[in-house]
Design brief:
Layout: E1 2-6, H1 20-34, E2 38-44, E3 53-57, H2 68-88, E4 96-99, H3 104-108, E5 117-121, H4 127-135, E6 140-144, H5 147-153, E7 161-162, E8 184-187, H6 196-206, E9 210-213, H7 219-226, E10 234-238, H8 242-250, E11 254-257, H9 267-275, E12 279-282, H10 287-290, E13 296-299, H11 304-314, H12 319-329, H13 332-348
Parallel strand pairs: 1-2, 1-4, 2-3, 4-5, 5-6, 6-7, 8-9, 8-11, 9-10, 11-12, 12-13
Helix pairs in contact: 6-11, 9-12
Length: about 375
């Protein structure tokens, strides 16, 4: 098939990945290419050219300095980039469009395209995307990355499919034995909603060192809540490549996951299990879809003592059972199989809701649901 993938524009779709959405989009595009599809990824300028990238905007995260002016510039750059793209797609020859952007314009303008579109919901609801989905009049099919995410969006639109994100198991090889020196690991974007400060407190209460990997996406949060907690036992090792990250995660006795929000899927959980590393996590969002009793321990949300106890219990779990759990429910090949079935159904039974573009498409959507 000729497949267009619409990426989000805040970060490059390439290594080192800023987060789970960038990882997912890159992996999906590469897997589809390996299966013989012609893939074009509409993404930001520094994205991996091997994906068949057509750059539509510079990375808008480079502009978000915390000032209103920078945030306004980022908002309008994204708006006009997606507006130009959606207008251009009316004359491009694709079989299907897969929207991973989290932006309101692709869904609100889906009914101006003859090409069928599926939108994957990677986050809990937020006002801009809700508004775009309502304006799109049901022209896009929707997939959610977990049952929890589908449930959260049910008041806005019918979710047609639940497709769990997958990982390339070869990128996270199994480690039967962790490093001799025991430690816990936490990794991901360092932002308030990921709850790293809670994980640090839990590691200390569990009496174990913690190694932290990931980009500092919110510098104010890092300076106020993370930097003061660092020390000989709590170390931020930086933003690592896939290979280095797999070594770090595979060497840990357990991985901590501490979301303050309804984590849509929990890619870091899947990656840890693939390495054979048990998981201790707050019971939130899509994480319970991944972790079972053989592979991790779930704690009550925001309870640091419970997370510390979960970490101590998780270290006793069988590492081979963790790997088997990843193979059973987190393999990227299963995810790509599911999306191929969705694409085939879209081509066989396209929605017929095409309308002409109107002047209202040329302005930002300022009225929200």
């Amino acid at each position: 098939m000729r497949i267009a993938i619409i990426a989000h524009l805040k970060h490059a779709i390439g290594e080192p990945f800023a987060g789970g959405l960038e990882t997912h989009t890159h992996m999906l595009a590469k897997a589809l290419q390996r299966r013989g599809h012609a893939v074009t990824v509409f993404a930001s300028t520094r994205s991996d050219p091997a994906l068949g990238v057509e750059a539509i905007c510079d990375e808008t995260s480079l502009l978000t300095t915390g000032t209103d002016e920078a945030n306004d510039v980022a908002f309008f750059r994204e708006h006009h980039a997606y507006l130009r793209l959606m207008t251009a797609l009316r004359t491009r020859d694709f079989d299907v469009i897969h929207n991973n952007s989290l932006h309101y314009l692709p869904v609100s303008m889906a009914d101006t395209l003859a090409t069928p579109m599926v939108t994957t919901l990677h986050t809990p609801p937020f006002c801009w995307l809700e508004s775009g989905m309502r304006l799109g009049a049901g022209a896009s099919r929707f997939a959610a990355v977990s049952t929890a995410t589908a449930r959260l969006w049910s008041h806005v639109a019918s979710v047609d499919h639940i497709v769990s994100n997958g990982i390339d198991l070869t990128h996270f090889p199994y480690r039967a034995t962790p490093d001799p020196e025991p430690y816990l690991v936490w990794y991901g974007r360092i932002v308030p909603e990921k709850g790293l400060d809670l994980a640090i407190d839990a590691a200390r209460r569990a009496g174990l060192p913690l190694r932290i990997a990931g980009p500092i996406s919110d510098r104010a949060f890092f300076a106020a809540h993370i930097a003061p907690r660092l020390g000989p036992d709590i170390v931020h090792v930086g933003h690592l490549s896939h290979e280095a990250l797999a070594r770090l995660v595979g060497g840990a006795r357990a991985a901590l996951c501490s979301p303050r929000w309804e984590e849509p899927y929990g890619l870091v959980v899947a990656e840890a299990l693939a390495c054979g590393t048990p998981v201790a996590s707050f019971r939130r969002g899509g994480v319970p879809d991944i972790v079972d009793a053989s592979s991790g321990i779930l704690a009550e949300p925001d309870d640091v003592d419970a997370l510390a106890a979960a970490a101590r219990q998780a270290m006793a779990l069988d590492r081979s059972a963790c790997r088997r759990r990843a193979e059973a429910c987190c393999d990227a090949e299963r995810m790509v199989d599911a999306y191929e079935r969705i694409y085939a159904d879209m081509v066989a039974q396209p929605l017929r809701l095409v309308r002409p573009a109107t002047p209202t498409d040329l302005e930002p959507i300022l009225s929200v649901a």
